[in-house]
# Entry
Amino acid sequence: MPANDPEIDHLQASLSISRVICTMLVQRNIRNFQEAKTYFRPSLQQLHSPWLMKDMDKAVDRLLKAFETKEKILVFGDYDVDGTTAVASMYHFLCNAYTPTQLDYYIPHRYREGYGVSKAGIDFAHANGFSLLISLDCGIKSIDLVTYAKELGIDFIICDHHLPDEVLPPAIAILNPKQKDCSYPFKELCGCGVGYKLICALAEKLQLDPILPTQYLDLVATAIAADIVPITDENRVLAFLGLQKINTEPLPGIKALITLGAIKKALTISTVVFVIAPRINAAGRMDDARKAVQLFIEPDYNRAYEYAEMLHHDNADRKEADTNITEQALEMLNSQENIHELKSSVLYREDWHKGVVGIVASRLMEHYYRPTVVLTKNADQATGSARSVAGFNLYDAIYACRQYLTAYGGHFAAAGLSMPTHNIEPFRKKFEEVVSETIEAHMLVPEIIIDAEIEFTDIKQSLFNIIHQMEPFGPGNMRPTFIARRVKDTGYSKILKEQHIRFIVTQNNLVLNGIGFNMAHKFHLLKNEIDIVFTLDENEWNGNKTLQLKVIDVRASS
# Structure
C-alpha cells in the first residue's frame, strides 16, 4: 500500500474508511466522495438515456410503424446466454406492447445453421410473412444475409455489441455502441443490454410505466455475467439491480434453475457464471436453444421447472463430453515434440462435440497458458472456438489468418471460426507465426493482480462488510486480492482429498483459517514462512459466520 499517496489521503479523509479500502477504490478510478457514492449505491438514475445511441430513433419509429400496420415481427437471436436472454426479454416485452399473434422468435440451430443470422432464419421469416426482423447479439457482420432479406422485402433492426467492420449491413437501424460514429457514452454493453436499451426507448415512446422494463433486469444481469463484459459504468448498475431481482423476485425460469442448482445463498455474478449460465448454454450446445427462451418466457413455475430440468440434463451431458474431450486434447498436446516452444495451440479432431470446444479451449489454457483454438468437423468444414490469454487481441490474430477461413467473429478474448479441413495445417502454421510475432513474453505467464498488502490485524468483519458492498465483481471490478507476508503454519494445516489444503496459519499472533483448492503440491512450502495471496470469504457453519482466506497462491517468503 502506498505510504504517501495524496489521492488515497484525500479519499480517506472524505470517506473516513480504512486506507486498505481507499487504496482499492483509487485503483478503480474512484477519487472523491461523489464517485464513491455512485459506486456504492447503483441506481436506475445512473443509466444513460437510450436515445443517445445512434439509430435508436430509427429503430423505434420502424417498430411503431410495424405496430400501426400490424406487420409480423420476428425476434432473432444467437443460441448462447446473451442471445437467448435478449430474445426472451424482447419477445416478452413486444407481446405486452403489441399483438402476440403477429410475433414469433427464432434461435438458429447451432449445428445446422451456425452462429448468427442464418439464411434458414431469413427463409423462415419470408415463408411465414414476417416483414420486420430484430436481430439480437448478432447481425453486425451479416452484410450478405441482410441484403438477401432486403431483396425479399424483410427489414432488419440490428441490436449487436460485436465489433463492426468498415462496411455495415443495409439495415433500417443498427444499434451498436461500438460503431465509430455512435456517441453512446458506454461502449461495453452485452447484446441483451443493447436490446434492453431498445425496450427502454420503446416503453418511453409508448408512455408505459418506466418501471416496466426493469422486469427484465434478471435476464440482463445473467447475460452480463455469462458474456464476461466489464462490470463497470452502466453494466455495474444493470448487474447490481439484476442480481437484486434474481435474489428477491426472479422469473419462474430463473427460480427453477436456482432450485435445480441447489443454491441456498444469495446469488453473485460468480454463481450465475458457474451455476446458471452453463445450464442455459447447454441447451444450444447439446440440443436446441429454443427451450432456453421458452424457460425464460414461461409464466407458470411448474412448467418452467420442466424446461429447467431439460437444460439440467443437457448440462450433465455437456459436462461428460467436456471432461472426455479435454482429456483427449491434453493427450494430443502432450505428445507434441515441440510443445514447450510453441506460443499457441491449434487442435482438431473430427468426432469432438462442437458444443463444448469453447469450454475445452478454456480448460487447455489452465494447463498451457497461450492462445488456443479447438476445432471439430461440422459438415465439410472444420469449425470451433478460440480463447486468449489476458492482454492479447485474439480477434486481430485470427483476422490476420482470414485467407484460410470461411467464417470468423468474436471479441478481444474469444472467437469462433470455420475453415475447410484442408486449411487446418496452413492455418495452424500461420496462427503460430502471427502469435509468435505479436505476443509479448509476459502475456504467456498468468499473473495475479494484487490490490493491497495487508496484515492479519487488518482483517476484520468491517473490512469484509465494505468489500461485500463493492459487489458485483467481474472484469473491471474484480474481487479484491490481498497479499500477507511472512505467515507461519500453526502445524494444524492439512491436505484434503489429496488435492486441496486446509490452512490454519498465523501472523502477529493472530490465527486465521483458509482453503486453497488444487494446491496440495505446494504443501511442503508450509515448513517455513510463506507469503500468501488470497481473497476474503465468509464461512458459515452451524449458524456461525467466520472470515476465512480463499488462498490463490503461496510462495516461500524471501
